[in-house]
Design a protein that fits this description.
The complex is a heterodimer of chains A (265) and B (258). Chain A has 265 residues and is an alpha/beta fold. Chain A contains 9 helices and 7 strands. In chain A, α5 links the parallel β5 and β6. Chain A is globular, with a radius of gyration of 18 Å. Chain B is built from 8 helices and 7 strands; from the N terminus they run βαβαβαβαβαβαααβ. In chain B, α1 packs across α8 and α6 crosses α7. The chains are: A alpha/beta (265), B alpha/beta (258). Chains A and B meet through α5, α8 and β7 of A and α5, α8 and β7 of B.
């Protein structure tokens, strides 16, 4: 029996990448998964989970639009009766040095990455509070809370903000049996990572990915399945004494003094 | 199918408390378990219980602060089960005394068991695991005391700080050497264990009153149970966590969030 049998889980940004990994593993563990995304692809991903013999439904949803979220939550409650798990995974990143960063770019990253998490949590919490049960998992990053890169002023700030959000919300809802935690992934082999490798070297993106892999102590990027396993653990009752905690999954990437120093040593 | 099928696990301090819960859970999930402890009577009871439930286990007498116990203990496991995949460095002790009254003997004993014991465990664990060609995992029991100060536990807190840092060093050393060994630390807080009972005595309180006092400080509103920590160990022991190394896992009912 799976560790999420009978549970209903909403995952944002679930069309592909980490969100897809989370949905697939949670579905395999018995959850009815509700995949949401701004991309049409979300329907295909849900269909593919169903074809594997697991439970999934899908909705197009923009986490920056509270009305859309409210509508999806209403439909899920009508269809499935409850929401046990929310994975705030939707996120965007676009690199600009601060001096070159248009204000709209800054706002867009804050709107999706941090306000999106606020919006979704706010929409599902009344039901969770009423049923005295819930799990909220915020997908932060090692970028921001632990480390950073040039061009990531906005992204790093939003991901660090998710730590504070996670802690404060955990304290607010602990008395209702709701756990709130954050996951901080390092480099995971997602479509987004592949795209950014292509941007750096259109002729040979694999060379870029291999170079990144070399900088990770474990020698490879993580898989979306490995990411999903950690989500499933935090979404399950096995982790019911864990709340307000950020958890790092990065193949050891943030442990050495610096990536470069580690390579040269 | 168990989540630890085909794995051999050695757990120190497994006669009681969190170590016992992990030993029982690991066996239930298919691991062959070496129950290591200095308490032979209680350790053997755990082994018998696991066997009665259809699991596989042996007892290993092991004082984690003694190097010769580690070589003999690890040898016994490898001789019995053919290999070692998972090591949980769980054994630990505490003494609750005001900072200024902490004696050198107390400090040394805490360090010897909690810090040196983990160092020796990691060292001999790596030695036993590195050439077996399989995915391996070492889990070190730290504590939230590694991150924040607690009343009258200076030596304990310092020893757990050592465990957290040692974990990162070991994780990187294994990566550098190309070993398939992951090393992580688990940081519990406020768990209903024999150690908590000892703390109650040292603070001159009944266990019930002490736990109630501690419970009130917990955002989650209840004291943790050993099984809560055992599930964390299970995730880290299994291949579900195959890309996690050098990380700290806090399980504290929300204490550090506040």
């Amino acid at each position: 029996m799976g560790k999420l049998e009978g549970k209903v889980a909403i995952i944002t940004g679930a069309a592909r990448g980490n969100g897809e990994g989370a949905a697939r593993v949670m579905a395999k563990e018995g959850a009815t998964t509700v995949l949401t995304d701004i991309l049409d692809q979300v329907h295909e991903t849900a269909k593919s989970i169903c074809e594997d013999g697991y439970k999934a439904v899908s909705f197009k949803m923009d986490v920056t639009k509270p009305a859309e979220i409210k509508d999806v939550v209403k439909k899920v409650l009508a269809q499935l009766g409850k929401i046990d798990i929310l994975v705030n995974n939707a996120g965007i990143v676009r690199g600009f040095r601060l001096v070159d960063m248009p204000d709209e770019e800054r706002d867009r990253q804050f709107d999706v990455n941090i306000k999106g998490a606020f919006n979704c949590a706010k929409a599902v919490l009344p039901g969770m509070i009423e049923q005295r049960y819930g799990k909220i998992i915020n997908v932060s990053s090692v970028t921001g809370p632990m480390v950073a890169d040039i061009g990531h002023c906005a992204y790093a700030a939003t991901k660090a903000a998710l730590w504070g959000f996670t802690r404060a919300l955990a304290l607010e809802v602990a008395e209702y049996g709701i756990n709130v935690n954050a996951i901080c992934p390092g480099y995971i082999l997602t479509p987004w990572i592949k795209i950014s490798a292509s941007k750096r070297n259109p002729a040979n993106p694999d060379a870029v990915l291999n170079q990144w892999a070399k900088h990770i102590p474990m020698g490879r990027l993580g898989t979306i399945e490995e990411f999903g396993q950690l989500v499933a653990f935090l979404a399950s009752d096995e982790s019911k004494y864990i709340t307000g905690t950020p958890v790092i999954i990065d193949g050891g990437n943030t442990i050495p003094e610096s990536g470069i120093g580690y390579q040269e040593a | 199918m168990g989540r630890l099928d085909g794995k051999v696990a050695l757990i120190t301090g497994a006669a009681m408390g969190i170590g016992e819960a992990s030993a029982r859970l690991f066996a239930k999930e298919g691991a062959k378990v070496a129950v290591a402890d200095i308490n032979e009577a209680k350790g053997k009871e755990v082994v018998e219980d696991i066997r009665k439930g259809g699991g596989e286990a042996i007892f290993v007498k092991l004082d984690v602060s003694k190097e010769s116990d580690w070589t003999a203990g690890v040898n016994k496991v490898v001789k019995t089960y053919g290999k070692l995949n998972v090591l949980v460095n769980n054994a630990g002790i505490i003494v609750c005394v005001p900072f200024e009254e902490t004696t050198l003997e107390q400090w040394n004993r805490i360090m010897e068991v909690n810090a040196t014991g983990v160092f020796l465990g990691v060292k001999y664990g790596i030695k036993a695991m590195k050439d077996n060609g399989e995915l391996c995992s070492i889990i070190n029991r730290s504590s939230t005391a590694a991150k924040v100060a607690g009343k009258n536990i200076a030596a304990y807190g310092a020893s757990k700080g050592a465990v957290s840092t040692l974990t990162k060093q070991a994780a990187i050393a294994c990566c550098e050497a190309g070993y398939k060994i992951r090393v992580n630390s688990v940081l519990p807080c406020e768990v209903r264990t024999p150690m908590a009972e000892q703390e109650a005595r040292e603070f001159g309180m009944s266990v019930k009153d002490y736990l109630e006092l501690r419970r009130k400080g917990l955002p989650i509103g209840r004291i943790g149970e050993p099984i809560d920590i055992a599930y964390m160990d299970l995730y880290l022991a299994s291949d579900e966590s195959s890309w996690v190394t050098g990380s700290e896992f806090v399980i504290d009912g929300g204490v550090l969030a506040r």
